Amino acid sequence: MHQRCCRRLPPLYFLRRGIHSTSTPTPADAATDATLLGRLTRLLLLHRYSAAASLLSSSGPLTPALLHAALRRVRLDPDAALHLFRLAPSRPSLLAHAQLLHILARARRSADACTLLASLLSARPPAPPLFPHLVEVYKDFTFSAASFDLLLRALANAGHLDGALQVFDEMRKLGCRPTVRSCNSMLNRLTQAGDLGTVVAVFEQMQHAGTLPDEFTVAVMAKAYCRDKGVAHAAEFLEEMKNMGVEVNLVAYHALMNGYSEVGRTENARRVLESLPSIGLSPNVVTYTLLVKGYCKEEKMEEAEGVIREIMKNKQLAVDEVVYGAVINGYCQRGRMEDATRLQNEMINIGLQVNLIVYNSIINGYCKLGRMVEAHKILHEIEDAGVRPDTYSYNSLVDGYCRKGLMTKAFEICDMMVRNGFTVTILTYNALLKGFCSLGSIDHALRLWFLMLKRGVAPNEISCSTLFDGFIKAGKTEKALNLWKETLARGLAKNITTFNTVINGLCKIGRMPEAEELLGRMKEWRCPPDSITYRTIASGYCRTGDMVGAIRIMNEMEGVGFAPSIEMFNSLITGLFIAKQCGKVDDILSEMSTRGLSPNTVTYGALIAGWCKEGDLEKAYNMYFEMSGKGLTPNLFICSSLVSCFYRKGKVDEANLVLQKLVDTDMIPGISATRLEIGKLANALDTVAGGNLHSAKIMWNIVIFGLCKLGRIEDAKNVFADLKGKGFVADNFTYSSLIHGCSTSGFLDVAFGLRDEMLSVGLTPNIITYNSLIYGLCKSGEISRAVSLFKKLQSKGISPNAITYNTLIDKYCKDGHITEAFKLKQRMIEDGIKPTVFTYSILIHGLCIHGYMEEAIKLLDQMIENNVHPNYVTYWTLIQGYIRCGNMKEISKLYDEMHIRGLLPTHMSGDVKQACPVAYNQNGKACHMKMYC
């Protein structure tokens, strides 16, 4: 893999820009006073330095020509040369520097040589390249080649990589071989700079020149290969180095572990760790910390915390603040603050100091969740612990308050920050700008922008993008473009993020020619567009139904080396439906498959929404079943598309059924938070709805339904009240969701009040509404009111259904009024409603509870005769009844029947049936069934 190649490798400095041009050294003045030169050099060689200084003060200054000549004469005495160099009245010439460096290199005075080079390289203004003068002196002195290597190392350590690469190339021409130490310095600096292609080229030329790698070279290259060619290539490289007999140290394996963790393959990193003892290396705390960081990145927090326990069990290692800090930060990033706090307390209990990094992680975690009281409390805790907060601490709090729209609080933190001696940075201003823009306070954001400029704080790409995005979202696109032009005139905003933001704004308002014109200007200004740029413009064309433009941009994108992503194909699918070209959708799906791309939730969302708009509910539903079969969960957009389609077709009951079946509270943004922020939720839903009022209404119904499903009635009521204040017109589903939620939670007065409100706004409550009220009354023990309401249904023109009867029958059975329950069953039949499996199961349960087992069995037989198939709950109810009676023989018969009907897993033995008759479903989990689904 790393064989030495015979071809001549190109000069490395051409791989990078901005190389210093090689200038011809100016020859030294030949004219000098021979007598003075002789006397001066004799005094220097005798080490009579004070006498030499006196001589120069009396006879005239030390000219460059005299210095060069004297250095040449004392070139074998490094002390004399150093003292002479220091006698120069101003900074000596580059030629003098070159002479002294050769003298020091020959004498192996590396420390003095490094000091000399450091002084030269840090000079302001920067000195021209020293290398040409070194070559001149090398030819004159005929020593020392080591000076080139010293210069190479000094340039690399100082970060002057262009100069270092030039010296590396020129040394080969002179036949000088760089040391492995200098090569390592250059390789390490190039890796840190991210110039990985050059790293590989340097390594290849280093081997070509005969400089053998050592363990440090291997460690640096392992890191570079992980980032450039992939972790598999790095693993292969380490194996090759081992086979060549080059030592591979722990640092190299750390690079490999980090490479695996970066690409989400932490289990591979663990295997590397476990292999270390077999090759004579002992893992240390850093090794385990890398594992922790990998697990945290993969959100495997339990595994990450498990690594801490592994370290504690290892008597050779001591767990430290860094490991704990990594796990705590992982928990904080995922909003698991209770776990983070638990580990913080554990740290303290075992005697570890909670450092600022840990405190900052916790502050940031609370701020992201909007729990600002706790975040502020941690700030005081830091101060009480004698730890000084830093700018990160304050900026996290500023950002947290801005996220919640509490701008006054955010500015109070800024004031506190300044009082404590910190400067308000661009990060602080960016958070404040984003806060104002999120609130739609564009004028305040603009004033803050000009205040930044006035105070000399240069906006960065995030500042520019935030402000432009704020203007565009507020519908002030022209102002955004004007501000952008002003910003360009100031020399700012010429970066990919800002260009993409402006292009996105133009595409959103359909100004596609301007967006494409900007794409051309990006190329002119040497800010090459990225895949996001092309995707944004293609999506813009798709939104207008211009598929020719979209395909043209996609082809151009592929032409410059960017492969179309799944997001690009999702946009094309949406565009085809907008352009009324749905016949081409299958072609797009085939091309996706050919390219190895699998449809994701967004793809199915586009397909379902498209077929719904076409009115093809069958295809839309087929797409839904296909995505469910692949384990993908429908989102809010998909749910609202299906419901909208049902509503348009007048299938209200089906729409309500879809809502009840599909709505998962996880699909509603922000609903899982402890305190619902209605403003942020409204912004999220408006974004999804895209200005469509009908879609927005359906989504708000989903939110109210989801909140009621969670039992968060107060939040549901607050959302409803806020919506009414904004002109939201509730429908039957809205009221039914709220009435059901209030009834099941015991808020009966509120539920009936909502029923009356429905009537007052011209909506007619249906049987679903009244079933919720009857259920609430039964649950609250008010059976007489429930029966009274039931009797009034006929007069309201509403017919009770099976759920109505089942609810009342269940209440009678629970209260021991079995006769009344059977009377209701009879009336149910007379009203033409066939008793369901739930009806029979409820009645059987009532009989069993009161010990009427014979009647219960007769009812089971009647149920079967009436072609109503008993389910697991029916049999389990009877089994429980017989268990109470101690009649194990009848239990065995029931189990046999259950086996015949396929209601019991066949692997359960008779002993298990008798000793532990617990209900299990097909997944082996405890089985519970709601009686009124």
UniProtKB/TrEMBL annotation:
Gene3D superfamilies: Tetratricopeptide repeat domain
A Pfam short name: PPR_1
PROSITE patterns referenced in this protein's UniProt entry, alphabetically: PPR (PS51375)
InterPro entries cross-referenced by the UniProt entry: PPR/CCM1_RNA-binding (IPR051222), PPR_rpt (IPR002885), TPR-like_helical_dom_sf (IPR011990)
Keywords annotated in UniProt: Repeat, Transit peptide
Segments forming a coiled coil: none
Domain of life: Eukaryota
Per-repeat ranges for PPR: 144-178, 179-213, 214-248, 249-283, 284-318, 320-354, 355-389, 390-424, 425-459, 460-494, 495-529, 530-564, 565-599, 600-634, 635-669, 696-730, 731-765, 766-800, 801-835, 836-870, 871-905
Protein name as catalogued: Pentatricopeptide repeat-containing protein
Taxonomic lineage from the root: Eukaryota, Viridiplantae, Streptophyta, Embryophyta, Tracheophyta
